[in-house]
Amino acid sequence: MYDLYAGYRLIGAFDVARTARLVARYHYVEAQLMRVAAGKLAELPEWELKCLAGRHLWQDSLHADAWLTRLIDLRWPRRAPLSPGEPTRRLMALLDDAPGSAAFLAAVYRQVKPRLIAAYTAHRAACAPLADEPTWELLGRAIVDEEEQVRQGLALLESLPATERTAARPYEALVADACEAVGSLADPATAAEREADGSFEGQAVRPAPPVAARDARFRLGERAADRPPADARELAMLMAHRDADNEMHAAELLGRSLYEHPEMPWEYHVDMARQLWDEVRHAVLYQRYLEQLGARLGDFPVIPGNYAYRIGLDFPHRLYDLHLRGEKLGMPDLIRYREEARARGDAHYALLNDFVHADEVPHVKNGRWLRWLLKDDEEAFRRVERETMQIRAAYERAHANDPIVTAYTGLVPSLLDDAG
Ligand SMILES: [Fe+2]
Ligand SMILES: [Fe+2]
Ligand SMILES: [Fe+2]
């Protein structure tokens, strides 16, 4: 009879306690890689880097989440992170200080992730594949993801100007030294097992840029077009350009919401990572549609409002303004875009908006973190709701011609009227 398990050896190098220590450290490393990348999104200018980081940090949130869940199986009594040990904490803090795009990519994809893959590979080769098949299985999946990530991250690094890559070398050497100080990530003797104050214990928060960075293709403007669109096709280009950029601004804001709140529960970070990845995909969807229409990123001005206005709000008001105001108010538009596109036979735009709309449902639902934050106090929730609307109304009154205000729709009415 065929025996699936015939080839599995019985012995393995790590018992339950040592496996738990390693799994706890993997959680910390993956969680912090997710968080640091989220924080970088608004700071680093390259559009393609934002796209790559958004996809990878979502994958890392899943890896980190799976490790945290596995910890309970391994006789640890609750789903709680353990301290990773001081050298690992220092290494992850150093990543956060990457002085630019090339430095960040070199540190993550040439230093840290290859070592993480090496640890996963060594652990998988050494562990008991039958007795510890759940860990063996998770390691295998994470290795596949991480190897793909490293290929993509290095390809992006290689596509940056040589001068930037050269300038990043001294910082990369510091990261390499910090990695050496950690030693093998798959050595349980170097992993601590004290329960930590959270998945990001000991990590600092860098200040937020007031405006999200854009690369040289883009130019900031006061409105989404320099002149009224000549015809319906140009209006469609303008809208796709605006929406690509606005979706990226949402991703960048979510990156900060994820990054700035290490004190929030782990599940909050997983939710934010997923929404961030969705917003990045939405940005790329509108970008591809724009290109299909014959235009490209940078053909129109961009307005920073979707990020720049909200980054100035405190945490509860930002949560309300993004998840419960912006996401919710935008949903009927997506259905309308889909129906109009169906009516005129534009299958691409119809399908795009259909899926974007489906994604927005959980994004509104993420507003439940505001209720959690306010301890389910209905009165406090209503107050934040009222204040969020008042703050925006006051801002709009005081800045009638401010691009941040017109940016909210991106299209001033006169432009739309002229397009007929
Ligand atoms: Fe990962
Ligand atoms: Fe979106
Ligand atoms: Fe959204």
Can you lay out the helices and strands and say which pair or pack?
Elements: H1 16-40, H2 47-73, H3 86-96, H4 101-126, H5 133-158, H6 162-167, H7 169-182, H8 232-259, H9 266-292, H10 305-308, H11 315-343, H12 347-365, H13 368-373, H14 378-398, H15 403-406, H16 413-419
Bound molecules: fe (ii) ion (FE2) (3 copies).
Please tag this protein with its features:
disordered C terminus; 420 residues; mainly alpha; 67% helix; Ferritin
Number of domains: 2
β-strand number: 0
Regions with pLDDT < 50 over 5+ consecutive residues? 407-420
Mean pLDDT score: 91
| Share in helix | 55-70%
Number of helices: 16
Q: Cofactors and ligands present?
A: fe (ii) ion
User: How far from one another are the termini?
Assistant: 73 Å
What would you report as the Rg, rounded to the nearest angstrom? 23 Å
Order of helices and strands: HHHHHHHHHHHHHHHH
